[in-house]
Design goal:
By secondary structure, the chain is an alpha/beta fold. The chain has two domains: 100 residues, 60s Ribosomal Protein L30, Chain: A (2-Layer Sandwich); 146 residues, 3-Layer(aba) Sandwich (Alpha/beta knot). The protein is built from ten helices and twelve strands. It starts with a strand and ends with a helix.
Amino acid sequence: MKSIQSRDNPFYKELARLSSSARQRRKSAQTLLDGVHLLGAYLDCGKQPQHIMLNAAALRDPEIAGMLQRLDSVPATLLDDGLFTGLSELKSPSGILALIDIPRADATGSESRFALLLEDIQDPGNLGSMLRSAAAAGCDAVFLSQACADAWSPKVLRAAMGGHFVLDIHEDADLPDIAARFNGATFAATLQARDSLYAHDLAGNVAFVFGNEGAGLSVQLMDAAHHAIQIPMPGRVESLNAAAAAAVCLFEAARQRRAKI
């Protein structure tokens, strides 16, 4: 196993750029997975990382030792503790990082059967939670506008908890065009809507459309959607968090779809 102890090492510099720069992640089409759980989810989808980075404590960790048995053909590098900490955003570093190629999305808007369209979602935690809910509800594709947070950033990856690896994720998507070409019904969530989410048949091909946490949906995207819906809220709050609203809509559709099986 190779060892790196200097920040001037070219490979380490490349890893540091990937951990901190969305631009570098898009340029190289690579990102870093931090921790056993994310890496395990990646392996469970039949994928293999390009490289593994460890700190000294990882070599004594039974869980990581078991993980390494699944990675015997993957190059590994031991990093000095300070260098490893510099690549991880966790207060207590996990001990293992994986360099992976960002998967290429396959499905198009016209081929998807259950999709999520996200316009200008800024908060990485919200975006990750929405991806996690989409994966859990059975979505096949998620389309992100250009101004969304970077889907493959460490914070979004952690919040999604492996959801990335079972979804086709399309960044920089033309959402009005996707909505127009979607082979089914598109539902735009907005507080101004009169129709309730629960008044619609969601068992067929559906796509839910959510907008920016503050500004909501653009007029252009609202016009492209087939239906405007709102979630009935009998309690004393104005609105739901964007990620919570998405989860409600996605799982209502999942409930109806299961009832039709």
